[in-house]
From TrEMBL:
Protein name: Cell division protein ZapA
Pfam families: ZapA
Source organism of this protein record: Planococcus chinensis
Keywords per UniProt: Cell cycle, Cell division, Cytoplasm, Septation
Quaternary organization: Homodimer. Interacts with FtsZ.
Lineage of producing organism: Bacteria, Bacillati, Bacillota, Bacilli, Bacillales
Length: 86
């Protein structure tokens, strides 16, 4: 069994530098980090009294919510496609 090549990338999220490891490209990991950073800054603008830990949790909750909604939509579209195929 072959192990996928791990890529190490440094990213900055909300003023902190993180070294992340994954099998995706560095560009992909930077994009993900950029989106997390953007979301945290967006929530900070709406809730300036929240510290970075609470902003991170709020960001995680909203991200998982968005993921679940998209997953539901994909499942609905797959079911519709199956019906069309007969």
């Amino acid at each position: 069994m072959s192990e996928q090549h791990k890529i190490r990338t440094s990213v900055e999220i909300y003023g902190y530098t993180y070294k992340i490891v994954g099998t995706e490209t560095s560009g992909h990991m930077r994009l993900v980090a950029s989106m997390v950073d953007e979301k945290m800054r967006e929530f900070h603008a709406m809730n300036p009294s929240l510290d970075s830990s609470r902003l991170a949790v709020l960001t995680a909750i909203n991200t998982v919510h968005d993921y679940l909604k998209l997953k539901e939509q994909v499942e609905q579209l797959e079911n519709e496609l199956k019906k069309l195929k007969g």
